[in-house]
Amino acid sequence: MTKPGQQGPHTAAIHGGIDPAEHRGAVSVPIYQTSTFAFPSAEEGAARFGGSSHGLIYSRLGNPTVQALEECVAELEEGAGAVATATGMAAVSTALLALLRQGDHVIATQPIYGASRKLIQKAFARFGITSTFVRAADPAAIRSALRPETRLIFVETPANPTLDLVDLDAAVEVARFAGIPLVVDNTFAGPHLQRPLAMGADLVVHSMTKSLNGHSDVIAGMIVARQTSMLESVRHTAISFGTTMDPHQAWLVLRGIRTLGMRVERAQENAIKLAQWLEDLSSVAWVRFPGLRSHPQYDLAKRQMSGPGSMIAFELPGGVDAGRILMNNVRLITLAVSLGGVESLIEHPASMTHAAVTAQEQREEGITPGLVRLSVGCEDLDDIRADLAQALAAVEDATFALPTTASPPIEENAHIDPHSSR
Ligand code: LCS
Fold first, then answer.
1. pTM of the entire structure?
2. CATH number at residue 211
3. How far is C-alpha 128 from the geometric centre of its chain's CA atoms?
4. Residue 387: active-site member
5. Whether residue 222 sits in one domain with residue 210
6. What is the residue with the minimal CA distance to atom 10 of ligand 1?
7. DSSP per residue over 211-241, as a string?
8. What is the span of the domain harbouring residue 194?
9. Angle 133-136-137 (CA atoms, 0-180°, nearest 5)?
10. Is 408 a member of any domain?
11. Can 210 be counted among the known catalytic residues?
12. What is the pLDDT of residues 33-83, one digit of tens each?
């Protein structure tokens, strides 16, 4: 294995974690579909349990297919090592469980993925862990929220769903000042566009369900550590709580990750052109995309990301009703949550991915009732644009007779029926 950061990102995605000599010449890492591993002797079994031998024991503790994926992502993220988890939420919960104890306080930025917010705010509160949420886009807010018992900073950048950014240099500085770890959810940008560990973050977490796998067919997560010391406590926690990954799941993600850079670059190219096109339309109220000069943190995006990615947030002048008509009229773009796949997906954060977040919290987070989130895929640009154009035309036709253009307040936890009139 070459050292992290030595190879280019496409090379690392294609070759990372694979040494055919270790697998009887197999160019694709085999799926070691086994729950347990035979010991050559009772003494060797005892040595493996005792830690004096590093041989395989049992797949919850370690499996060669899963290890190949861990090595690959650690290399992509420039980390010392990684622990694969069953889901993205398992990555978030395991990272926090490894680093926190009763009485600790967490500072998290907002917005973040709705389930992560509820995990920190509600589930961890049951175990005596308190939290403060601060505005992602305010670089001074994290420092102001520090308390003597603050033990961890958790940030997501770009943030789901508004694409607000957290200044990673500033967050690292506060974490160093306070002597506490900084955990970054790097799901939206991914290692092809942003490497928080190289900037000084301590852990990166991923929902590999998204661009790392990239084919909308697997749920998976990963935790990558900058230093081996923290990696060991994360691994121990994942094994104890049973959040580790299955070998078949690992093989699918390994297969998807080989084309990470190509997919990310193509989707990004589509997204840049679509965001510019959307911004020029009078039928769109505003567009939020880190690659547009109108993004309030455009300069920060250029500083800490090597590209703006493929997620776009926008709002229509007709608010939630207009957004609903748009989503019910797309034909090529799929009305579904999730993101980062080869296919374009559209969803309504206020009633879907962030429905568990209260209306008041949504307001604080900038999740407006009419916000539409688009995950741009790798289809032909003209086809995505034509689909959006015809859906926007349907919105214009339908809203022509509407009495108001103001966004009505959305009912908390209101749901859009994905089956209606499609
Ligand atoms: N972190 C971020 C930033 C996410 O967007 C998600 C899922 C997770 C963690 C959790 O990952 P999972 O357990 O689902 O693999 N985000 C979703 C979304 O925006 N739509 O559907 C899921």
1. 0.94
2. 3.40.640.10
3. 27
4. no
5. yes
6. 88
7. TTT-SS----EEEEESSHHHHHHHHHHHHHH
8. 9-257
9. 140
10. no
11. yes
12. 999 999 999 999 999 999 999 999 999 999 999 999 999 999 999 999 999
**Based on the domain organization, do 220 and 364 belong to the same domain?**
no
Average pLDDT of every residue of the chain: 93
Residue 360 shares a structural domain with residue 374 = yes
Q: Tell which one of 185, 209, 337 to mutate to probe ligand 1, the residue whose CB is within 8 A of the most ligand atoms.
A: 209
> Which candidate in 104, 185, 246, 387 is catalytic?
185
CATH label of the domain that carries residue 357: 3.90.1150.10
Give residue-wise pLDDT tens across range 209-238.
999 999 999 999 999 999 999 999 999 999
- Is 185 catalytic? The answer is yes
Residues with CB under 6 A from ligand 1: 87-89, 92, 113, 116, 156, 160, 185, 187-188, 207, 209, 219, 221, 337-339, 353
User: For residue 161, is the peptide bond before it cis, meaning its omega torsion is within 30 degrees of 0?
Assistant: yes
Domain boundary (231, 257, 283) is at 257
Domain boundary among 229, 257, 285: 257
- Enter the DSSP assignment of 194: -
Closest CA to 45 of 60, 57, 32, 58: 57
